[in-house]
Design brief:
Number of domains: 2
Bound molecules: glutamic acid
Distance between the termini: 6 Å
Largest sheet: 8 strands, mixed
Number of strands: 15
CATH class of the largest domain: Alpha Beta
Number of helices: 14
CATH superfamily of the largest domain: Acetylglutamate kinase-like
CATH topology of the largest domain: Carbamate kinase
């Protein structure tokens, strides 16, 4: 299912402070990369931060230098340490690593981005693990990405990756930065989702949840799913790829119906069931349509909008799972109604669909 995954690791995950690498985490990640490569032939590209932070540690700097030349010098020192650590950790599991350093210019010119992709493809074809980072020692404000979240998303788009995994010090997207609860599944990155994110104040890291959401927007638009989770106690990579890990999963946007069923495994456990008539069943399964209120028969369970529900046909078979745009109480009110009647009852909504086709995955016995 997931043939190519990009894993982005933030500075806070790889650094053990004072210029040291978190060896145990690196070893666990190397084992995970080896395991998924062996079991499901999944190709892995690593985007690894940490160069600046490691270089700062080596120079005994506690705060991020404002002098750009010194910042670039830190990156030049730290990148060696970073690559040595990755090379050792991957060698330990029988894998070869390769260093690929990029600047934004590599993506701005098509000829250059094609060369990047050719190099990555050549490495992956040899079973080599590319370790990518921004070329901080030559980047300046004009050409900097600024953060590896966006860099990793652009690599997903360029290389048609199926899944972007962003491991950081955050557990995932929280409903509120300080005291919220984890958002397990995002069907669509709306302004409300973007408002939940905030920047970072760590002296060695850049980005924060704001750039992670930006990265998720870029990656999901190119048909790539995104997982944001904790790298401090990282789940096994195989669990992440199979949708069993704790974090926030962002569904790929705008995929054809046949494409979306692959992501069923990542949908959280349904919070309710919606029974539909045969007309609605055909619309979903044979016409790639959305679920409309006119096809609703029964609503089981109590749930809010944006929750995952099972969609059941008249033979009590689960034909799909999807993200409902209405709560269970609202569905009881609009059941059987036409689209115009739904919009009259809910003037704040711009669309009448109960479950939009982009947020609907036909049920399969086991996602292939
Ligand atoms: N490229 C920077 C470094 O290696 C980090 C950028 C980021 O964490 O997004 O330190």
């Amino acid at each position: 299912m997931v043939k190519k995954v990009v894993i982005k690791l933030g500075t806070g995950i790889l650094s053990a402070g004072k210029g040291k690498i978190h060896e145990a985490r690196l070893a666990k990640l190397a084992n995970g990369i080896h395991a998924v490569g062996k079991s499901s032939k999944t190709q892995v590209i690593v985007v690894s931060s940490g160069a600046v932070g490691l270089g700062m540690g080596k120079l005994g700097l506690d705060s991020r230098p404002t002098d750009l030349a010194i910042l670039r010098a830190c990156a030049a020192i730290g990148q060696c340490l970073l690559m040595n650590a990755w090379t050792d950790a991957l060698r330990h599991v029988g894998l070869v690593s390769a260093q690929v350093l990029l600047t934004r210019d590599d993506f701005n010119e098509r000829a250059r981005s094609q060369k990047v992709q050719e190099t990555l493809d050549a490495l992956l074809a040899q079973g080599v693990i590319p370790i990518v980072n921004e070329n901080d020692s030559v980047s300046d404000e004009e050409i900097k990405f600024g953060d590896n979240d966006v860099l990793s998303a652009l690599l997903c788009s360029l290389g048609k990756a199926n899944l972007l995994v962003i491991l950081s010090t955050a557990k995932g997207l929280m409903t509120h930065p300080e005291a919220g609860s984890l958002v397990p599944f995002v069907a669509e990155i709306t302004p409300a989702i973007e408002q939940m994110a905030k920047g970072t104040d760590s002296p060695t890291a850049v980005g924060g949840m704001v750039t992670k959401i930006e990265a998720a927007k870029i990656a999901t638009k190119s048909g790539c799913a995104v997982f944001i989770g904790s790298g401090e106690q990282p789940s096994e990579l195989s669990e992440i790829i199979n949708g069993q890990a704790i974090g926030t999963f962002f569904a790929p946007a705008g995929l054809e119906l046949r494409e979306r069923k692959r992501w069923l495994a990542f949908f959280p456990k349904p919070k309710g069931r919606i029974s539909i008539d045969d007309g609605a069943r055909n619309a979903i399964l044979t016409q790639g349509g959305s679920l409309l209120a006119s096809g609703l028969l029964h609503i089981e369970g109590e749930f809010e909008k944006a929750e995952v529900v099972s969609i059941i046909d008249s033979r009590n078979q689960t034909i799909a799972r999807g993200i409902t745009r209405f709560s269970s109480a609202e569905l009881l009110e609009i059941r059987g109604k036409s689209n115009s009647e739904v919009l009259d009852l809910h003037p704040g909504k711009t669309r009448p669909e109960v479950v939009h086709r982009d947020h609907l995955a036909p049920h399969v016995s086991s996602p292939n």
